[in-house]
Amino acid sequence: MSHATTTGEKGTGEERTELKRVMGPRLLLLFVVGDILGTGVYALTGDVAAEVGGAAWAPFLGAFLVATITAFSYLELVTKYPQAGGAATFVHKAFGIHFLTFIVCFAVMCSGITSASTAANAFAGFLRDGLQLDWADGGTPLLLVALGFMTLVAAINFRGVGESVKANVVLTCVELSGLLLIIFIGLYAVTQGQADFSRVIVFESPSDKGVFFAVTAATSLAFFAMVGFEDSVNMAEETKDPVNTFPKVMLTGLGITGVIYVLVSITAVALVPVGELTSGESSALTQVVAAGAPDLPFDKIFPFIGMFAVANSALINMLMASRLLYGMARQEVLPLPLGKVHRTRQTPWVAILFTTAISFGLISYVVLDSESDVVSLLGGTTALLLLCVFTIVNIAVLVLRRDDVGRKHFHAPTALPIVGAICCAFLAGPWARSEEQQGQYPIAGVLLLIGVALWVLTWIVNRAIYGKRTFMRDPEHLEHD
């Protein structure tokens, strides 16, 4: 494994770019950590514990390892092709198949919608905890709050809120503070003799699949907590010396979040029995705060920190999804009306409405299905879509080894992309999901069918108008146009 400075203009070691390189290692690290932290661990700790019992730390550790292996592939690709664009860029360079590039791009967009929908339901749950509301008798209040929240996110998106570096620093600090609060409360509880760490080695599973498959089912769910690192590759053109900076920063960011997740899951199980943690009466981490520091008002404050964390995740994901849809319309891959921009706000309003409508449908379908665990189902669907994308990206690394770019770059050990592709493909399969999680496949399938239908419609229209297919003229820029 090696990496070296790119030979570029005037010996700067940086490729020519139209964007301003403003992000150094510290700001990039905050971006990576802030993008990974959020809805996953805040909302899914109880669901992961429900799959494996006290050994809830094991799935988070497994998800961290798979994410890190895949990160090595992203590091080789982003230092080899330091351009914004992400998975769509890499897949198109490797295979050159427009339809495959489209599917990967649309899957990434759908993962943003399902992630934001997960955050909307988690937001409703934290609001219930913070205001101490009794919503145990049905899903209607949760549905109304979640839909109202997504409407607010759409309004902010329409207004044109961007992701400034300063805002990301503030949001990351707030998200991080909530998780560090959990860890510190755990340490405090240990000094008071309130923690029972014997529970963290107890494996309990409601299924009869056995330890291995129960852990893999929980890992496929916990993987949702680790996604986000791949978004940082879109900052390549705005990072100083990306070839040297990205490897150190991305691996450090993954390491920090991995340690935090494992410590949080251990603390949760040590302070609250698994049966209570998964009861659903209040969010798992809110129960942990209340149990670890019963004499302090942290349990009143924590739900609002959780609301802030998941709200940030929802906004970031819906911004990404709407802009990605807009970019695909601009490239004539999807119907042109989806690329319309509002005259005064200068935002892709049709794409915003379309992605918001899909999120409304997802939230309504899952919440009104009384047998569904809303956050688990939608979060798991996000992980499913991205695991499929990561499988293809890991393969793309090996295919692109034949492309000599004429300069040194980060080189992942050959075994890692192979292991990464196998692990991601395995975790995407039905054998890596419990019976309750099988509902993720119809959701993901319907979303992709919507994309394929739009693609076919565009192909027919373009052929009728131009007499040929005229789409994806510049697929490398789908994810940031």
Describe this structure in words.
With 481 residues, this protein is an all-alpha fold. It has one domain: Amino acid/polyamine transporter I, CATH 1.20.1740.10. 65% of the residues lie in helices and 0% in strands. The chain is built from 16 helices and no strands. The longest helix is centred in the N-terminal third of the chain and has 34 residues, at 98-131. It is globular, with a radius of gyration of 22 Å. The protein starts with 24 loop residues before the first helix and ends in a 15-residue tail after the last helix. Residues 1-13 and 475-481 have low confidence and may be disordered. It is a multi-pass membrane protein. The chain crosses the membrane at residues 27-44, 56-75, 95-120, 140-158, 170-190, 210-229, 249-272, 301-326, 347-368, 374-400, 412-431, 443-462.
Kindly list the characteristics that best describe this protein.
disordered N terminus, transmembrane transporter activity, transmembrane helix, APC_superfamily, 481 residues, 65% helix
* CATH architecture type: Up-down Bundle
Spans of at least 5 consecutive residues whose pLDDT stays below 50 are 1-13, 475-481
CATH superfamily, by name, is Amino acid/polyamine transporter I
Number of strands: 0
The main sheet comes to: none
From the spread of the alpha carbons, the general shape counts as globular
Sequence of secondary-structure elements: HHHHHHHHHHHHHHHH
Distance between the termini: 33 Å
Strand coverage percent: under 5%
Structural class: mainly alpha
Radius of gyration: 22 Å
Question: pLDDT average, as an integer?
Answer: 81
Helix count from the secondary structure assignment:
16
Number of domain units: 1
CATH topology: Amino acid/polyamine transporter I
Which CATH top level class fits?
Mainly Alpha
> Helicity range of the residues?
55-70%
